[in-house]
Amino acid sequence: MPEHLAQSLKEAVDREAVFLKAVTERDASRKPAAGAWSQKEELGHLIDSATNNHVRFVRASLEPEFHGLGYEQDGWVNAHRYHEMPWADLIDFWKNYNLLLARLVEHLPENLMGRKCIVGESQPVTLEFLIEDYVLHMQHHLDHILERNVITEYPGAALGV
Questions:
Q1: How many Å is the Cα radius of gyration of the chain?
Q2: pTM of the predicted structure, to 2 decimals
């Protein structure tokens, strides 16, 4: 099972990096509305999500039951000032970080997939759910960044993970 999840992540990253690279620096920097994230900031959010989920995946593999914090996504995006970073650098960092996560997931023992995980005040989920939800969450935002007609839904949105 972890190999399948890792493969899904790798495939999404490889596929979507091509489309992200087709977005211009100018377009990636444009905010669609006051208070809305630019494409740079939304991809930065995915880097922050990778960071937070990296910790969750590792700790869930090491602890009998994972309890971790949620994160304040707007604060993280603002703190990193993604809007000031070059688009190509953001894409490369996002891609490489997610390939690292795919490697981690690929080597997780199958018997850990049912491990109980609690993020913030959310209901308990399994490590498998966290990983699957992470990939779907990433795809949801990539669909939005790339202005697709169909935006991937993900179950964690309702749970706040």
A1: 16
A2: 0.95
φ, ψ dihedrals at 142, nearest 5°:
-65, -40
Nearest to 45 by CA among 141, 147, 157: 141
Q: What are the residues facing 117 on neighbouring strands? A: 66, 125
Integer Cα distance of 122 and 152 in angstroms: 21
**Phi, psi dihedrals of residue 109, rounded to the nearest 5°:** -65, 140
**Gap between the Cα atoms of 161 and 144, Å rounded:** 19
Site of tokens 């399994």:
126
Per-residue pLDDT band for 41 (boundaries 50, 70, 90) equals very high
Q: Please, which residues bridge with residue 116 across strands? A: 126
Give the residue extent of every domain in the chain: 2-159
What CATH number should be reported for the domain whose range is 2-159?
1.20.120.450
What local confidence, expressed as pLDDT, does residue 159 receive? Answer: 65
In order of 38, 83, 92, the CA distances from 26 in angstroms are 10, 11, 17
Indicate the average pLDDT of the chain.
Answer: 95
pLDDT in tens, 6-24: 999 999 999 999 999 999 9
Q: Which helix (H) or strand (E) holds 80?
A: helix 73-80
CA distance 149 to 151: 7
d(CA 46, CA 19): 16
